[in-house]
Amino acid sequence: MGLARRGASIADIEAVYRRRLTDFRRVATAIVGEREAALDVVQDAFATAVRDRRDFRREGPLEAWLWRAVVNAARTASRRRDSYVLNAAPQIDARATENGGAPDELTSSVRAALAALPERQRLTLFLRYYGDLDYDAIARLLDVRPGTVGATLTAARHRLEHLIEKEVSA
């Protein structure tokens, strides 16, 4: 009985990078709190993945392995940046939005509500809705069961509703 093939090719890694770069950057931005830092995180994660490509054991999809690399790199960068927390709403609100205007009241409320969520809830939301990952991929990435992903998303949505209503009515 032979050993299963291990490793990933540079071409396969590059294909995932090209196809999902926008999603990787969105999730990394949500974790790190700054677009430029997120781009660096994604680049670093992929450079590490290319260097360590022989460590890919093919026990799951390559994309899931790469998501784990990006999320772990972003979490590490976030911990190193004391002035930022996951989706640091107060700091982000002080800057202009992507279209050059000031954030409106609803955008500010949503950002504040996201910042108030526990880390697992925020990360699960970002991976599902920004990263467009399915429950199984998120479960593998966070080392939880798919049912836990569903429960976490439900709790996060309910908490967000409550926090946004509270923020808007204040």
Task: Describe the model.
This protein is mainly α. It has two domains: 1-84, Rna Polymerase Sigma Factor, Chain: A; 87-170, Winged helix-like DNA-binding domain superfamily/Winged helix DNA-binding domain (Arc Repressor Mutant, subunit A, Orthogonal Bundle). The protein contains eight helices and no strands. α1 (10-32) runs parallel beside α3 (62-80), α1 packs across α6 (119-130) and α5 (105-116) packs across α8. The longest helix has 24 residues, at 146-169. Residues 82-100 have low confidence and may be disordered.
Question: First CA to last CA: what distance?
Answer: 67 Å
Number of helical segments with 4 or more residues: 8
Unreliable runs: 82-100
What is the N-to-C order of secondary-structure elements (H for helix, E for strand)? HHHHHHHH
Roughly what is the average pLDDT, rounded to an integer?
A: 83
Share of helical residues:
over 70%
Summarize the structure.
The protein is built from 8 helices and no strands.
Keywords:
170 residues; mainly alpha; 2 domains; Rna Polymerase Sigma Factor, Chain: A; globular; 71% helix; Arc Repressor Mutant, subunit A
